[in-house]
Amino acid sequence: VILPPKNYLKRAYEYVHGSGGVCIADEVQTGLGRFGKYYWGFEQQNVHPDIVTIGKPFGNGFPLAAVVCRKEIADSFTNGMEFFTTFGGNPVACAAGLAVLDTIEKNGLQNHALVTGNYLKERLVLLKNSQAEDSQGRKVGRLIGEVRGCGFFQGVEFVRDQLTKEPATAEVSVITTRMLRDYNILTTVDGAFDNVLVIKPPMRFNSKDVDYFVDSLTIVLTSLGNIDPSQVSKTPT
Description:
Blueprint: H1 8-18, E1 24-26, E2 51-54, E3 66-69, H2 71-75, H3 91-106, H4 109-128, E4 144-150, E5 153-158, H5 169-183, E6 188-190, E7 196-199, H6 207-222
């Protein structure tokens, strides 16, 4: 979970377009209001993709995906090449997608993701900087290197050393296992070193859910102890 710096994608798009390429924004995980401030993730970079892909959340459990593109790109398929999809455009899937769009708007879920996401980030940062100590006299939030993202798409990077940024891969594996086993919280692990806890909750996630999540994480970190990486197997997510 890394938000690009300002104008990063804008410059990248310029290079791609300059070489005759097209730019695709994958909004499967970041679109439909999840970013809070932005309805689509690419809006954070103020760019205009040539193609946008939308996936699983579009149907809220119903199998639905969509590809949105500029007219000239769509027209390029009318060259004699056959394009075929068994379930393309079926009315039940379309009805599900329209219902999702209506629910996001009527229930104010984008703003809800913004407000609750800000609270989530605030609590995670407070945990990172907490002066509370575990039974061995170590800061409870010592393993949290950085809290990144926005809205309902955030990541917590865990490191063994705040200076060298050595990935706390084994610790994250234990943390995710205990969160699920002891508190019924299912999380995702990501990153090149599998040391980033990714938080992508349902859009109905509220402030009480935030408190339960962060309180549970705090308990797990407080009781984590010393982890021997050689004794920890990778947690599948």
